[in-house]
Design brief:
The complex is a heterodimer of chains A (77) and B (203). Chain A has 77 residues and is α+β, with helices and mostly antiparallel strands. Chain A contains 2 helices and 4 strands. Helices cover 33% and strands 23% of the residues of chain B. Chain B has 6 helices and 9 strands, in the order E-H-E-H-E-E-E-H-E-H-E-H-E-H-E. In chain B, the strands form 2 sheets. Chain B has a 5-stranded parallel sheet with strand order 8-7-6-5-9. In chain B, strand 6, helix 4 and strand 7 form a beta-alpha-beta unit. Classes of the chains: A alpha+beta (77), B alpha/beta (203).
Amino acid sequence: MKDKKTYAVVLFKAVSYALKAEKILKQEGLPHKLIPVPKQISSDCGVCLRFEQNIQNQIEAALLNKVEIEDIITLDH
Amino acid sequence: MADIKIIDARGLSCPQPVVLTKKALEDNARVTTVVDNETALENVKRLAGKFGCAVTVESQGKGIYEIHIGRGADFNKDQDFVASCQTGAAPSGPFVIAVTEDKMGRGDDELGTVLIKSFVHTVADLGKKPDVMIFYNTGVKLTIEGSDVLEDLKQMNSEGVQILVCGTCLNYFEIKDKLAVGTVSNMYDIVETMSGAGRLLTP
């Protein structure tokens, strides 16, 4: 039952950054999901935030100057 | 009403019942598969769930089950399905995950909350999904409205994963009216499911 939405993930330096970012996105009402970092990106046991790519600008704007972002990667399914 | 194709899969070993059922579904909107063991029953049920079919099971006693399957509108025959056949000395019985808390691991609650979200998401992506997930104690909080893992649980539920939620626990936390996925269950079902499990996993 997977849909064909395109997702991207925001990666952070540490779990605490991801948590901080999650709180901000929740406040802003931007849909997102905390997921383990996909294996093809890193084998570390990390977490990242997944979102639909069409709101990438909003996500970046919301986190700008608040949480340091390491990278944003588009997921291809 | 189209004819019902009947597959008699009694006496056949895994994964034959699933293979035959899948084949029959490609050409028939309605299929009834007769099986004589739980593994075949679970596999055929999972198959039907994965392919978005309606399933009803009729127990004929003596371990014989009739599985009535109605093909859904979005049936896609090219989808893959892997039957789980127990090989060698592997334990038989369903794969059960007991979620005992709304966190994963002890020590730090904030971290535990992150981990359980990751856990459920990863289980939902697993090739071999659990047959049953049981939620009790604070674990029931994962199954109610507003839970961060609700989407994943609903997806698994629609794919045939049975979700049992402890009624006493919902009651204790006064959140019974907020249950958003799964069925309210009791200690009898929970103990029976756990003791009958081939594999029992707790995050």
